[in-house]
Amino acid sequence: MNRILCTLALSAAFSPVLAQQYDYISPISWSASPVLHKIPSSFGEASALTVLDERSVEYKKEGQDLMVTQTIHKIVHIKDDKGIEMFNKMYLPVHEGGTVGDIKARTITTAGKVIDVTPDKIKSTEEDGSQYRQFALDGVEKGAEVEYSYTEKRPFYLFGSEFFQNGAVPCLEARFLLITPAHLRFSAKGYNGINVSSDSLIGDQRIIVGQASNIKDLPDEKYAFKDQYMARIDFKLSYNLSGNEAGVRMYTWKDLGKRAYSFYTDRNEKDDKALNTFAGLLPVPVDTSLAGRIASLEDYIKSHIDIDKKLTSESGDQIPQIVTTK
User: Fold this and answer.
1) For residue 159, how many C-alpha atoms fall within 13 Å in the half-sphere facing its CB?
2) HSE (CB half, 13 Å, CA atoms) of 311?
3) Is residue 123 a contact partner of residue 134, using CB atoms and an 8 Å limit?
4) Of 170, 195, 263, 277, which one is least surrounded by beta carbons within 10 A?
């Protein structure tokens, strides 16, 4: 993607604080002559440090379809043996229906030597039902840096989340760019230290940018759910300005509540018949108290209905299908 210079109109759209932080719209930069970065002492204990994590997400019409192209670029400084183990082999996830290409990767050694990953070393692999593009990096050592970028093209999606913190590796500089057609207006919000601008209309595109600096790593805590504390950006489609209801906000929590209620409560005659058949197979519980009957019902369902996330079916949420196939 070509570099797009920031305009006065864009800066004026930001708050004064954000205008100072977002003095660029530069999706991805790949230096022809990379050099090692000076690492602040405040990140001395980390095994690795993400020097730069920049991502662009662009919604663009291709033929009759609206596709999403995401480009990710990272530079990681290696601090110790654990850091070497973490980054001497890379797995790039491929989402369902997506394709990953334009992969570039290299190691910059402490002596300043640049070792590129050649295309023949990039393989496709599958682990636990998920697709990846895999490659190893040579020359990864203490004090070296690993740099890679890739582009993934995916079918249109309404909601997105970009995490710039995984708990183990701090990040010195994070950048985010969302580009959409003018008629699609997205909402975006940053969490845990990430600043996000409002959208700005430039030509026939809407632009949202995000930025954060000095993102610390999170201490490992057993059984903790870290996602809510990680630096991230959430975004969603809020308005389609080309439709008949251009001013109506889309995909709200109220809409979700209505759909969820309908999904869990609406039943038809076939559903009731299937449920009555299933209920007729239930054994009489030994403990006839309310708690005993609930426990017996739970045990029977878990023993006779298989729940497997790897199994998919277009009718997998239909009650008659569930009762029949178990």
Assistant:
1) 5
2) 10
3) yes
4) 263
Cα–Cα distance for residue pair 268/258, rounded to 1 Å: 18
pLDDT-derived band at 37, boundaries 50, 70, 90? very high
In angstroms, rounded to a whole number, what is the distance separating the alpha carbons of residues 203 and 308? 47
* CA dihedral over 117, 120, 126, 131, signed as positive or negative: positive
In angstroms, the CA 296 to CA 310 distance is 27
pLDDT in tens, 262-309: 888 889 999 999 999 999 988 988 898 999 999 999 999 999 988 877
Which token pair is 88? 């001497």
Q: What is the pLDDT of residues 125-171, one digit of tens each?
A: 988 878 999 999 999 999 999 999 999 999 999 999 999 987 788 99
Element (H, E) at 84: helix 81-87
- Average pLDDT in the chain: 86
pTM above 0.90, yes or no: no
Any residues with CB less than 8 A from the CB of 323 and at least 6 apart, and which? 274, 275, 277, 278
For 34, the 3-state DSSP assignment is coil
d(CA 246, CA 183): 9
Q: Which two tokens stand for residue 236?
A: 């969603």
